[in-house]
Amino acid sequence: MSTTRKANLVVRRVGALVLLRQNSETASEREWHNLLKVIISLRDDLPKVKFIVRTDGGGPSPSQRRSLEQALGGRPARVAVVSDHLKVRFVTSTIALFQKELQSFLVKETPKAYEHLDLSDSELRQAEAALKEMESELA
Question: For 9-135, which CATH class?
């Protein structure tokens, strides 16, 4: 029997992409801290980084949203959030108040999300493969 703990939030960097795959739960503090470390390490390059968030309904808590704003340090980042859940769209709108390059999309609008990020064909293939793999790591 495997004792590997499944995650609420999985973060992976693939070239200029940062991919987040989340289930319907809020990320643990450890998972969120790991995301913040990635963002802070990329802070100077944020305008060149493309973030894809695919969530089944989970999103950051109010305190996690505050820490995200601090980690971004006022720098813009291009973000596409893909989810069919109304709660996610609401949370996304609160983050968009300090992150103007963030847009949310329904799952059926995923191609539009990729257009928003201006993904190359190679990036698109890498993103889709990685997101599928990351899904298996979720609780």
Answer: alpha beta
